[in-house]
Design brief:
The complex is a heterodimer.
Chain A: H1 3-22, E1 27-34, E2 41-46, E3 49-54, E4 61-64, E5 69-72, E6 74-79, H2 92-101, E7 104-109, H3 120-133, E8 137-140, H4 156-161, E9 168-169, H5 179-190, E10 195-198, E11 211-212, H6 215-220, E12 224-225, H7 227-244, E13 248-250, H8 256-267, E14 272-276, H9 278-282, H10 304-316, E15 321-322, H11 351-360, H12 367-382, E16 399-409, E17 428-438, E18 441-445
Parallel strand pairs in A: 1-4, 1-5, 6-7, 7-8, 9-10, 10-13, 11-12, 13-14, 14-15
Antiparallel strand pairs in A: 1-2, 2-3, 5-16, 16-17, 17-18
Helix pairs in contact in A: 5-7, 7-8
Chain B: H1 12-29, E1 44-49, H2 55-66, E2 70-75, H3 87-96, E3 101-106, H4 111-118, E4 125-131, H5 137-151, E5 158-162, H6 169-180, E6 184-188, E7 209-213, H7 216-219, E8 225-228, H8 233-236, H9 247-254, H10 258-263, E9 269-271, H11 284-287, H12 294-314
Parallel strand pairs in B: 1-2, 1-3, 3-4, 5-6, 5-8, 6-7, 8-9
Helix pairs in contact in B: 1-5, 1-12, 2-12, 3-4, 5-6, 5-12
Classes of the chains: A alpha/beta, B alpha/beta.
Chain lengths: 454, 320
């Protein structure tokens, strides 16, 4: 660990202790099953930590958690909070509310804001605003290149050493396509104890691309986004990361071929991690018939066989974690013709339910596995020391209570985000987040939906 | 029929009804000094063109006027679209202003589908006059009308569609329609201009087939008709696109010249949706030969569009 990293750890623990001063609560969670395992237990939360776990515990405030599953709070490595610049679609405040309601206790806000988060001023603004709102730890992602232009490195060290202590750098939305620039970014961030998160999209292969290159797009007359455009960059970056002994994180893996590349790279010792979005676990390009741009996203929705391989890769750990790529867009940027629409979907409030639907219900992942892919692995990848912790005495009370038997109907208008562009509109999804706690403070609470189990 | 958005999914019966109506209208008007039917008097048809067009726009306008509809032409450059108005607002404005039917051409694939969605709560019908690289259903219908006229039948015929299939809405609409009507369609293009899965384009249960070939000379002796697609040179040739090395090489491999005309059976027909690039995909001698039905296509275009307007507007009151 570098000196910088330890400084940042100190910085983070300062944050924890400071917020705890304001947010102390004493409550007992009654009858919860930790990781959905074993017998129901009571959990005493005091001074921001799990003070006791046992039976018959009492406290001034009791939460009836019978039938609920406790998991460590979720960590989203990939969120677009749109502030600064597009506060008409999302703000750090509304995005934090959505995150807390989705069970998240930490989110990483992507750098493609306006102005771009490519300097200390912007990343510190995002960091401070997140702390003011206080519902979720908002960690700014710094841009890899100045202005996301892919030409020269942004001041990565300055952002890393800023109050925001940036540890993930990404040009997300754009690929760092220049191989030399990518090599330099990987090498340079290694010295900062940080990781480059690559939006893998070979730009020449995807010029004008509108949809997954396949039979569906060909029939619809939509220019194809070939799987090889993702796979080629992932392969190249894995080779570069290995070459310079740096860490690489691959954003929103969407193809079966990328899974093959990751498996190969990991087997030869490459320090690579990868995320998959809930929508790539759930939806296919069959959704494009009808041209509703709510289904437009980058990388695009792919085929059913890609979806199946992604689910298996997540279960197996070849793909490390789930990240939402939560991307709010204004109504006018979605309710238009397909090619004019912006790519992206809301994800923070639906992520858990989609994971339950696609991974837990089919038996591919147990609750331990959900904790791994939604909390522990992303926290490790980002170097967060106080997130993704075990549910044990003395650990931060940063956790989520999930009702596995209940279900809910998604309504974009009812979600906390300002924008309403959810592809799950009208769908009944299993798994309801009942309560989220960040260092002992309740950040979201949801009573029974009345939807009943399905 | 509420809208005409695509030929994909159109039943052979529905297509034949439109073709029969077009034929009836053609016979009705034949030899008349005043080519005007009162059928659509009081109806308002708006043509909304977000791309340049001569033949399609004029064809719809003539079709509307011959049926006594009030036809209003709107082009993107002269409308609020040039001030940044969205297609959705333009559509709802036209509908609110009394348009019974909007004929739309737009560079975005799916634009006509979106328009129909936005107008679903109104009585305004939508006709797709070409959406991006997706479909151009009235072109396919007029091609089918021309083939029926020249060949007598479509079922069992073998029809080659040649050129830039990848970017062609004409190719898609024709492949769906002609295979549904029982023809065997062969798409002839270099692999770079062949869409993924084009060989699956025949609808399940279609009477005909859709196949793919890269060798024009091999196909010509067995076809009853050959449909040449316009090469959009700016799109497919040059150092940006590189779908094809050069105009010369394209013409040599996929152009229809006098020699290739000689490979066709005696009865075979040559079609081109226009505008033609003489010397590129089709030689002048071929375009002007009696085998070419290019002007017939344009003539039939008016009757087919009359039939479409008739079934969408006049037929509506009868619940057709």
């Amino acid at each position: 660990m570098s000196e910088l990293a330890s400084e940042s750890d100190k910085h983070r623990s300062e944050l924890a202790s400071e917020s705890d001063r304001h947010r102390r609560e004493l409550l007992v969670i009654k009858g919860v099953r930790l990781y959905g395992e074993g017998d129901p237990v009571d959990m005493l939360v005091a001074d921001g930590v799990i003070a006791d776990v046992g039976t018959g515990l009492e406290g001034p405030e009791a939460v009836d958690a019978h039938g609920l599953v406790a998991l460590p709070g979720f960590v989203d490595l990939h969120t677009h909070l749109r502030e600064p610049g597009r506060e008409d679609t999302e703000t750090i405040e509304t995005g934090s509310v959505a995150a807390a309601l989705g069970g998240y206790t930490a989110v990483f806000a992507m750098a493609n804001t306006d102005p771009v988060a490519d300097n200390a001023v912007v990343v510190e603004h995002v960091w401070r605003r997140g702390r003011e709102v206080g519902l979720v730890d908002v960690h700014p992602v710094g841009a890899v290149t100045a202005g996301l232009a892919g030409q020269r490195l942004a001041e990565l060290g300055t952002m890393a050493r800023s109050e925001a202590a940036v540890r993930i750098f990404s040009d997300d939305g754009h690929c760092v396509a220049d191989p030399l620039l990518m090599r330099r970014a990987l090498e340079y961030t290694r010295g900062l104890g940080a990781v480059v998160a690559q939006h893998a999209e070979e730009p020449r292969l995807t010029a004008g691309a509108q949809a997954h290159e396949g039979e569906r797009a060909a029939r619809l007359g939509l220019a194809g986004w070939p799987a090889a455009a993702e796979e080629a960059i992932v392969a190249r970056d894995c080779l570069l990361a290995k070459q310079v002994d740096a860490r690489l994180h691959v954003c929103h893996v969407s193809t079966a071929g990328t899974v093959d590349v990751l498996r190969w790279a990991k087997a030869r010792g490459t320090k690579v991690s990868a995320e998959v979005t809930p929508h790539h676990l759930a939806l296919t390009d069959e959704r494009l018939t009808g041209y509703d741009p709510v289904n437009k996203v980058n990388p695009p929705l792919r085929t059913a066989s890609d979806v199946q391989v992604l689910r298996e890769a997540l279960a197996e750990g070849v793909v490390d974690c789930v990240a939402t790529d939560h991307a709010p867009h204004a109504e006018q940027d979605k309710n238009c013709e397909w090619s004019a629409a912006r790519p992206g979907m809301l994800g923070l409030q639906t992520a858990l339910s989609v994971v339950v639907d696609t991974m837990v219900r089919p038996g591919m992942l147990d609750w331990r596995g959900v904790a791994r892919v939604m909390s522990e692995r992303p926290a490790q990848i980002a170097g967060l020391v106080d997130q993704g912790r075990p549910l044990a005495i003395g650990e931060p009370a940063t956790l989520v209570l999930v009702d596995p038997r209940d279900s809910w109907v998604v309504r974009g208008a009812d979600l906390a985000s300002i924008a309403g562009n959810t592809p799950f509109e009208g769908m009944r999804l299993p798994g309801v987040v009942r309560m989220t706690l960040l260092r002992g403070r309740v950040t979201a609470r949801r009573s029974t939906t009345g939807g009943g189990g399905t | 029929m509420r809208h005409l958005l695509s030929t994909a999914g159109m039943s052979p019966a529905a297509a034949e009804t439109l073709l029969d109506t077009a034929e009836t209208l053609k016979k009705t008007l034949l030899g008349r000094e005043v080519r005007k039917l009162p059928t659509l008097r009081g109806r308002t048809v708006v043509t909304l063109f977000h791309e340049n067009s001569t033949r399609t726009r004029v064809s719809f306008e003539v079709a509307g006027k011959w049926m006594s509809a009030d036809v209003i032409n709107v082009s993107a450059s002269g409308s609020s679209a040039s001030k940044g108005e969205s297609l959705r607002d333009t559509a709802t404005t036209l509908s609110a202003a009394g348009a019974d039917l909007v004929v739309v051409r737009h560079p975005a694939s799916g634009a006509a589908h979106r328009l129909a969605g936005w107008l679903s709560s109104t009585n305004t019908a939508v006709v797709n006059a070409g959406d991006g690289t997706h479909e151009h259903p009235t072109q396919a219908l007029l091609d089918a009308a021309t083939l029926r006229e020249r060949l007598g039948t479509i079922a069992g015929r073998r029809i080659a569609i040649v050129g830039d299939v990848l970017h062609s809405r004409v190719a898609r609409s024709n492949a769906y329609l002609l295979s549904a009507l029982g023809a065997d369609v062969v798409l002839v293009a270099p692999p770079t201009l062949t869409p993924v899965g084009a060989a699956t384009w025949a609808e399940p249960g279609a009477g005909g087939t859709v196949t793919v070939s890269h060798d024009l000379d091999a196909e010509l002796p067995t076809v009853d008709a050959v449909m040449m697609l316009r090469v959009q040179a700016e799109r497919v040739i040059g150092d940006v696109a590189n779908f094809f090395p050069s105009v010369r090489e394209y013409s040599a491999a996929y152009g229809l010249d006098g020699r290739r005309l000689g490979l066709l059976p005696e009865h075979a027909v040559v079609l081109h949706p226009g505008p033609m690039l003489r010397g590129m995909e089709i030689a002048s001698t071929v375009a002007d030969s009696p085998r070419a039905a290019i002007n017939d296509q344009v003539r039939n275009g008016v009757h087919v569009r009359m039939a479409v307007l008739y079934h969408l507007l006049a037929g509506k009151d009868e619940g057709a």
